[in-house]
Amino acid sequence: MPAPQPQTLVQRALGGHAAIGLLAGALLYIVSLTGAVVVIHDRWQRWEQPTIAEVTALTPSAAQAGVAAAIAQDAGKPRTTHLYLRMPNADLPRAVATTDHGGWYVDGQGRVAGREAHSWTEMVIGLHEYLHLPATWGMLLVGALGVALAALLITGVLAHPRILRDAFWLRTRHDPQIARADWHNRLGVWTLPFALAVTLTGAFIGLSGVGYSVLAKAYTGGNLEKIYAPIYGPEGMPDANAAPLANIATALATLHARVPAAMPTYVIVHDPGTRGQHIQILAALPRRLVYGEDYRFDAAGRWQGPVGLTNGPWGQQFAASTYNLHFGNFGGLPVEIAYLLLGLALCVITSTGTTLWLGKRRRRGMGSDRLEACWAVVIWGTPLALVWTAWLRGVAGPDAFLVAAFWGLLAAGLAVAVARPLWIVPEQLRTVLLACLIATGLGHAIILRPAAPAILALDAVMVLGALLSLVVLRRFQAGEGREAGAGSRPSS
Fold first, then answer.
1. DSSP-H helix ranges across 298-332
2. pTM across the whole model
């Protein structure tokens, strides 16, 4: 048997090019998948801590008591600079008071009801927003990925002149590669308005921080507060001398009297317990896409007026609207379900795009078992790692090292894919994932016994969705088996 010939420089360069392309595709998939999960992050927070007592509303006096109770939890710690009170709503019927040192649920009387400890949900949010990198660099990378994905969507449509005419033509019973291409193309058309809205707003959110920093260095000597002020309002003048806690109750009552339609979502006290403190209330308004209007009050709760997010210059309103448009925080549960399904469709588009590319390489004699195994690990290993870290959170508690566990699990899977690519079988990974989803939904419902119907609904969706997926995927496994029998490796 002749000895294998060493690779040429061109072959090594092509291999490196393919690996970089696979890395970009993997990051796009991870951001898309976690984005679909994050759409209902408030519901995941309830799911993660199902035993916390829930409240539908918080009176002004209870809100005042709640922030005072949160401040009391920080006894012996450095003074907090910002105090947040999240008001209960339909998605998260829990009041949460947060200082620089931690967060606490408060009940309807403003008493501490438990520690806010939804570390798994926060881990997923961090993965989506900045890939667990340092925040500035991570958001820059995610913003750039948003631009790249928007460009891929547009050029993908332009590259297929018949794509609109064939929008409802699916050859699911043909060769798996053809079926996969049809799903990729059709979903790309059906979800194009959503995908462009999400990717472009995501790019705006991710890259805006860099833009603000550049403007600050160019025009304000690096002072970011002056750059943010025209959009989000100015910060007050600090005065560190001690003073009684700001009067949140009066501020809430004043807001209700002046703007009855406003629904407070956050109450923020800047520099609480000092003479320089002031109150900021973010409140949602009906039939507005902006995340809310920002109303300002002094320490005594006296009205100082709105910032103007709902009626200011169009650029200010646009900046305040990108968050809700990107995360689907408008329209309630129907919009959340639509965003979730469309987000999963975007996952299919990103995953099948790279799978098709790997298939073309194999047909041209450039296939790589290692690259294909790595891609299978990304597609099925990423959600598996999310599920396993949820179990780790449940077993080891909220202080478990979830970020390290997630990346460690994914890295271990990729290491196996590189060292023993034939051990990675996509069908088996899919089955393990779906089995874990079923076990997670059933285990959560049986062990923790959540009382809220919304939490039980998540468990039911996990179980029923996984069972339905098992049935549907059986249709494709036979075709992939025929493809493998013809000499190709089963594709992910």
1. 314-327
2. 0.88
